[in-house]
Amino acid sequence: MALLPILRYPDPRLKKVAAPVERIDESIRTLARNMAETMYEAPGIGLAATQVDVHKQLVVIDVSEDKSALLVLVNARILERAGSQAGEEGCLSVPGIYDKVERAERVTVQYLDLDGVERTLEAEGLLAVCIQHELDHLTGKVFVDYLSQLKQTRIKNKLAKQARITA
Ligand code: GNR
Ligand code: NI
User: Fold this and answer.
1) What is the model's pLDDT at position 44?
2) For the chain, what is the radius of gyration of the CA atoms?
3) What is residue 66's three-state secondary structure?
4) Pick from 107, 111, 133: which is nearest to 122 by CA?
5) What's the gap in Å between 134 CA and the centre of ligand 1?
6) CA-based nearest residue to 60, from 8, 156, 155, 135
7) CA torsion sign, 136 to 139 to 142 to 145?
8) How many Cβ atoms are within 10 Å of 29's Cβ, its own excluded?
9) How many CB atoms lie within 10 A of CB 138?
10) What gap in Å lies between CA 35 and CA 54, rounded to an integer?
């Protein structure tokens, strides 16, 4: 088991587009385990491989209160989106920043599990938000990209100042 370092916005590596996983082998299962451990320790409700500088289509999610519902999605694609919801989002790569983002209320997602079995999941509410947030990471998008330019600049300045204080 291992905790992985999480990239911080605006690290340019957060903009990389992840490639499909070609083979679900022990290295992918180990990465998923370490990502889950890192997510739980943070704590967060999701983590995309992009955030730990691995540019493969792998995300872990657990929106339960008691770490009882770990979801590992490999090569996930959203087949359908419906409705809309706007909720406060945060991101482990943008610590201390929270803002409202509009997302689909429901999504249908197709993915491979860690046994390579193709599955389809219908999600709504917070789980649907988290799926959309994580899949955005895999295409190089962070939630702050949806905010105004002014807010993006303020967030960059705030995080740069924080980084100077912690350094
Ligand atoms: O832990 C997280 N919480 C969260 C809250 C609202 C909307 C999205 C999220 S995802 C975030 C973890 C993270 O950064 N995943 O990429
Ligand atoms: Ni995030």
Assistant:
1) 98
2) 15
3) coil
4) 107
5) 8
6) 135
7) negative
8) 13
9) 24
10) 10
User: How many separate helices (H) and strands (E) can be counted in the chain?
Assistant: 3, 7
What whole-number distance in Å separates Cα of residue 14 and Cα of residue 136? 10
Question: Given a cut of 80, is residue 23 above it in pLDDT?
Answer: yes
Q: What is the pLDDT of residues 35-89, one digit of tens each?
A: 999 999 999 999 999 999 999 999 999 999 999 999 999 999 999 999 999 999 9
Query: For the residues 3-22, what does the mean pLDDT come to?
Result: 98
Instruction: Count the neighbouring beta carbons within 10 Å of the beta carbon of residue 108.
Output: 17
pTM of this prediction exceeds 0.90: yes
Q: Report the pocket of ligand 1 as residue ranges, CB < 6 Å.
A: 44-48, 51, 89-93, 129-130, 133-134, 137
Active site residues: 134
Q: Tell me which ligand sits closest to the C-alpha of residue 49.
A: 1
CA distance linking residue 135 with residue 77, whole number of Å: 8
Record the tokens describing residue 81, joined without a space.
């989106």
List pLDDT tens digits, range 97-139. Answer: 999 999 999 999 999 999 999 999 999 999 999 999 999 999 9
Please answer whether residues 120 and 80 qualify as being in contact, where contact means their C-beta atoms are separated by less than 8 angstroms: no
Coil, helix or strand at residue 56: strand
